[in-house]
Amino acid sequence: MDSYRLYTVVPYLLKFIDNLTNIYVRFNRKIFKGRTGEEDCRIALSTLYHVLLTCCKVMAPFTPFFTEVLYQNMRKVSSGSEESIHFCSFPQVERKVGSRIEQSVERMMKVIDLARNIRELHNKSLKIPLREMIVAHTDAEFLDDITGKLGEYLLEELNVLSVVPCNDTLMYAYLRAEPNFSVLGKRLGKSMRVVAEAVKAMSQEEILAFEKSGEITIANHCLKLSDIKIIREFKLPDGVTEEEMGGYADGDVTVVLDLRPDDSLFEAGFARLVVNRIQKLRKDSKLKPTDIVEVYFKSLDEDTSLSSKILKSQEAYIIEAIGSPLLDYHLCPDNAIILSTPTLTFNDNAILHLCTGNAKYAEALKVYLLSRDHSNLKLEFRRGNCKIKVDCIENQPAVDVVLGEHVFLTVGDYYSPTTNNN
Question: TM spans, by residue (predicted)?
Fold first, then answer.
């Protein structure tokens, strides 16, 4: 900034704001809402206030009017502050960057990105819960972090039931070494070919020993970590298929997802769908996060035993997610204000026929459609001339779902006299 090279400053600010929004604030929503206790909430909000104030001071030279508006809002809860953001001193560095917790969070985000890539590769939506995620790494402290302080964030963000640490990096990946030609070419000259062949022939044990020691001698040349690229690639364990397990290796970490479905995952997915609908209803009703409401549930299935069983088994998760228990609909008082959003309605006979009589497939298809964002689904039907192709149900063929025949966007559409429901 002293040299007025402002274009080098703005990218750092944008990256910082993105991290603040999508990591700190997004991952700690429960704390900000007071779900973990008043003291945690106060500390989190005080920290956020300090960070926003410092950020305003840093951004003031670049966005003078915007930061002034933010500062004047923050002044309302602070006494003895300057009258304007432009009267404040530019903040000083309080400590060096690069602490272990920052490194752990960076690694956590890397794990999240790799897991998302695996889900996308195997057509597993984040709405579908998975049984287990394995994280393989040589750093014991990092493995302790992801099963301890950071484990909760991974479970929630990736919708997995458990995170398993693994310090055997060769269990789910194999290593290969490649010479860094851009670094070694000029230095080795004619010896480059011999060294390159030796590097590519390094065994798994030799590569691990090189990573640990930081150097290796080949053809009388001492090579450092910057001279050799270590590449990890995921490998399936013996007896496991690609449909059952997916993985991704990058740098020093390998992430593995158990893709096998079971009843417990179906129950977790059902509960997540219920919570998602409740949160959308709160948003559409313009409720604040601090507004307390009571939620009542009524199953429209002829046999209500399945939904009752699932909600009972997932009760703890639902209470934690929405901040209140899910009450039986018959307990709803007569004077209660009932809010509703448009919901999909199915022609069960047509859906079952579409799935060639496979009741389990028909149920999975309905769960998938219900998990979709209502407005996006409506837009897809419009673009597809009232028809969409669903080809992401595991081990099931693709089907064409027709609006007005198999599914209806609202209950009103289903019961409309002009609609053919045969």
Answer: none
> For residue 176, what is the enclosing H or E element?
strand 173-179
pLDDT given for residue 73 in this prediction: 92
* The predicted structure's pLDDT at residue 421: 43
SS3 content of the chain, % helix, strand, coil (to 5): 50, 15, 35
DSSP assignments along 288-355, one per residue: -TT----EEE---SS--HHHHHHHHHTHHHHHHHHSS-EEEGGG--TTPPP------EE-HHHHHHHT
Token representation of residue 168: 């055997």
What would the pLDDT profile of 333-359 be if each residue is shown by its tens digit?
A: 776 666 566 678 889 899 999 999 998
Q: How far is CA 362 from CA 91, 105, 202, 219, 421, in A?
A: 60, 41, 52, 64, 17
Rounded Cα distance, 206 and 200, in Å: 11
Whole-model pTM: value is: 0.64
